[in-house]
Amino acid sequence: MKQIITVLLIGIILFGCSGSKDISMMSPEEGLAYAMELYNDEDYQYSQKEFQSLVLQYPGSTITDDAQYYLGMSYYQDGQYLLAAYEFSKLIRDIRGSEFVSMSQFMLAESYYQLSPPYPLDQTYTTKAIAEFQSFIEFFPIDPKVEEAERKIFELNLKLAEKKFNSARIYEKMEYYNAAMDYYTRVYETYHDTKFAPKALYRKIHILLDKERFSKAFDTINIYLDKYPDAEDADEVREIHDEMAFKR
Question: Which tens digit of pLDDT belongs to each residue from 211-235?
Answer without folding.
Answer: 999 999 999 999 999 999 999 999 9
